[in-house]
Amino acid sequence: MKTPIAKKETVERNWVVIDAADQVVGRLATRIATILRGKNKTNFTPHVDTGDFVIVVNADKVRLTGRKLEQKAYYRHSGHPSGLTETLAQKMLDEKPEQILYKAVRNMIPNPGFRTGKNTMRKLKIYTGPEHPHKAQQPVRVEVK
């Protein structure tokens, strides 16, 4: 009995649509990261990108549990002295709601700054409304519980 190892040339990628309305950010992000890496497939191989493309719609309607809207902060640094900027989750949800989900998924992907992580994150498409421009790829709708 041999263990099948996926090859880059033989991987079949599908397109998946996930509706983020009334979903908790962390639980949704784990499901998205699993699909992006291909861990839900039987031919998962860690060093080969076997994941599917994921389209997330209604990203502006995600939920944060507890007091995270008032307490959770997102940080970024400009690279200059005293260039640290803090943004609370409520403000981020009002201005850039797709960034909350993007950052949550990015932190669940291994090596997001290197080639495999970057290529994995390129397969994630996040939209704030219910519409997306990827109808030609015939995406399949997936229910997330």
Topology of this structure?
Elements: E1 15-19, H1 25-37, E2 53-57, H2 68-71, E3 73-77, E4 84-88, H3 89-95, H4 97-106, H5 115-121, E5 124-126, E6 140-142
Parallel strand pairs: 1-2, 1-6, 2-5
Antiparallel strand pairs: 3-4
Rounded average pLDDT: 94
Name the quaternary structure: single chain
Radius of gyration: 17 Å
Shape: globular
Helix content: 25-40%
Secondary-structure element series = EHEHEEHHHEE
Going across the biggest sheet, name each strand in turn: 5-2-1-6
Question: What is the count of β-strands?
Answer: 6
Distance between the termini: 36 Å
Proportion of beta-strand residues:
15-25%
Global structural class: alpha/beta
For the largest beta-sheet, the strand count, sense and barrel status come to: 4 strands, parallel
Low-pLDDT regions? none
Number of helices, counting only DSSP H or I runs of 4 residues or more: 5
